Amino acid sequence: MEAIILFVLVLVLLFLGVPVAVSLGLSSILIIALFSQDSLSSVALQLFTASQNYTLLAIPFFVLASAFMSTGGVAARIIRFAIASVGHIKGGLAIASVLACMLFAALSGSSPATVVAIGTIAIAGMRQVGYSKDFAAGIIANAGTLGILIPPSIVMVVYAAATDVSVGRMFLAGVVPGIVAGLMLMIAIYVMARVRNLPAEPWRGFGEIIAGGKEAGWGLFLIIIILGGIYGGVFTPTEAAAVAAVYAFFVALFIYRDIGPLKGVRWIQESDSKRSRIGFSSLVYAASFFFVWMILTFFITSEWENVSMRGRAYVGLALSLAIMVAYSLWRDRESNPFNIPGYLFAGLPIWTRNFRLIGRHFFGFFFNDDTRRVLVEASKTTIMLMFIIVNALLFAHVLTSERIPDAITQFMLGYGFNWVTFLIAVNLLLLLGGQFMEPSGLLLIVAPVVFPIAMELGVDPVHLGIIMVVNMEIGMITPPIGLNLFVTSGITGMSLIQVVRAALPFVAVLFAFLILITYTPVLSTWLPYSLMGPEIVTR
To answer: How far is the C-alpha of 525 from the C-alpha of 530, rounded, in Å?
Structure first.
């Protein structure tokens, strides 16, 4: 009886327009006060416990990293690299937009952020070369959903916090499905491009790919820091989120300089000589390679007995020096390796000029209007998410204390549910709920209910998490509450109905992907269990 009253209360409050967080929290408090054996002091204890959850601490840091990456011009550089890589294929600009969304998703962990960052530039670019606005908007709305599937994902962190599943395994589990989903969207676009005779970008050669990758490299390096750091054992997912936020701030303000007191001031000026440019760039590439080498080799050789940090450093230094020499000789064909010290010395004025600028404006990096705006926006998003999450965890506490999941488990088992029919029911429930609720809140309501049933039926916990995330993806592009629909409508000026129609053909692709993921568990479990072993759940 209490379960029926609880769910009816939540639904009534939601349909009355009460915010999701308030609906969940108020319903839970009323059930505790009127029907439960718990005292109201358990509410305060549960709220305190939820707010002290170490795993959830990753969310504000990932939100902050996403805010700096979205504001700091990383998206434009990623789009250039994506166009250089696949733009020459039929419908290449649209395919490049999907690839750009995949790459940016690996930096942001948020679908709306991916839609805003990539869509603002990509939709305008597609319109200029002859794509219809509907087609461009539909692609971005759907590809943007990859922001919560490709790691790092805020929604995966929420699932891990709700079920005590490993965040590291969840992040790895999203890699293969994220690539598969992106490829399925690309194939659908290619088929439609052949039918509609959509244009292809001219092939600009491998030089453009290298140039695009070089520009986007500082942003994409964040992927290596997060995943390499977590799976190399350098830090936990929560610590990785903190490192990501600091690195995103550093790249946006110090390296790319798209925001902050040095906005628009390039590291290399037109007045710098060729020798000084070569010396500066060769040292930058050598140092960058050394850091990437040290991180990747730590990840790869972490369990090798005969490999030491000193040995890796010596090999990395040798390769970095080789890169420095090769780059200098490539840029100046008439030179020889003995001129390298001269190039490095010629590059010193560039280093001196830039470090002086950084020193002069050092405090301005932290207290300028751009930084303040990013911090405020990230704070608003974090407060909104955490308020929903804390109230949803209170709701989950009421479910558990009233033994509602156990009752539902016995009911479903009594009616002969197996893992196949159970997953059909979960998909239907999440697809319906995703039309009306924000992903994190819905997941925190449903996960405590379905997780015990899934464990009883032998469903893998990591596989279940990926299924739930994919359902959340589809929920973000289905009316009436699909967040990506509203964001796409905002950046294109189209009505919500127009965006829904534009996204519909590609939603069918994601439905096919959902079926594939649901009944092919190996896509989700192969990578995390190969690297980290199986998830152990205590029932």
So the answer is: 8
Q: How far apart are alpha carbons 170 and 185 in whole angstroms?
A: 23
CA distances from 152 to 100, 173, 177, 228 (A): 16, 11, 13, 12
What are the helix (H) ranges across 144-174?
A: 154-163, 167-173
* Separation of alpha carbons 32 and 355, rounded Å: 60
Name the one residue in this structure whose structure tokens are 């989950």.
Answer: 396
pTM of the model: 0.85
pLDDT tens-digit map of 467-504: 999 998 888 888 777 778 888 888 888 888 888 888 88
Sign of CA pseudo-dihedral 395, 6, 450, 149: negative
Q: Give the position of tokens 């994902």.
A: 153
pLDDT band, residue 240 (cuts 50/70/90): confident
Q: What's the CA gap between 203 and 221, in Å, rounded?
A: 26
Distance, CA of 470 to CA of 439 (rounded, Å): 10
SS (H, E, C) 308-364: CHHHHHHHHHHHHHHHHHHHHHHHCCCCCHHHHHHHHHHCHHHHHHHHHHHHHCHHH
